[in-house]
Amino acid sequence: MLTRRKFLVNTLKGIVLIGAGNTLQSFAAPGFRLPAAGKVVLRFALASDGHFGQKDTTWADNHQRMTGFLNKEKAGRGLDYSFINGDIIHDNPAFLPEAKTTWDRLEMPYFVSHGNHDKINEDGWEKTWGTRWHHAFTKGDAAFLILNTADETGKYICPDVDWTRSQLHKYRNKKHLFVIMHITPVKWTEHGIDCPELVELFSAQKNLRAVFHGHDHAEDGMKEKNGKHYFFDGHLGGSWGTPYFGYRIVEVLNNGEVLCYQVNPAVTEPVNRNVIV
Q: Which distant-in-sequence residues (6+ apart) come within 8 Å of 21 by Cβ?
């Protein structure tokens, strides 16, 4: 778990404005005010690392709380989608049907990515969730790519580069492109791996607005590589990580900006917030 000192530093971070010149400007803000709901054209949530079935954790309560939080978001400002970004279960695929029943309580469409603790083969995954490990879809001006970062034994792997390249090309004319993948492709965290060919593709993709990760339970902020922005959402369960169970919200605004903020449900202010322009 993070130390209290580190947690307080993270909580007090100001807004980071990501400018067109790929520079980062930080400034303090006395409070956080959401844009008017009428300015939001697409809104989605990301949560990860529930580790359904992990021994000596309150995994059932954790999931019940998180589905409640996300349904509350849906009833409030609305949610078009939720993404459960990997490590849905903890090693034992026997928990997968019950985990799906739990997530089916969500009152909005949701999608899942395959994590290293989701130890089931791709056919079994598809039988449960209805999608392959890699899949993509669109909504209006936005495209979403969900990539796989582990094999069925839990070994960390880079996503299928050829498939990713073809999808990036297919959706190159969308205004917004978002990537969801459990493990970060840059070894800047303890549990990341290096996928240089994939990062090169991301760096060259002009409409790629953000890449979203789970896996590193202690990471709940943003990192930058070659002008692209990689976000983490902490964890919603498991036995280690940030001292809270949280999730990330993304709002695409009608002026083209993308607002990302990390939520700790126990406090009023976001843990951090970023605007991509």
A: none
DSSP 194: -
Sign of the Cα pseudo-torsion (216, 229, 275, 42, in order)? negative
Mean pLDDT of 40-48: 98
**One-letter identity of residue 117:** H
* Tokens matching residue 96: 């997968």
The answer to whether 156 and 149 have CB atoms below 8 angstroms apart is yes
Q: What is the pLDDT of residues 131-159, one digit of tens each?
A: 999 999 999 999 999 999 999 999 999 99
Spatial distance between the Cα atoms of 172 and 170, rounded to a whole number of angstroms:
6
Nearest to 48 by CA among 221, 232, 190: 232
pLDDT tens per residue, range 97-116: 999 999 999 999 999 999 99
CA angle 8, 78, 173 (to 5 degrees): 95
Q: Find the angle CA(181)-CA(139)-CA(150) to the nearest 5 degrees.
A: 15
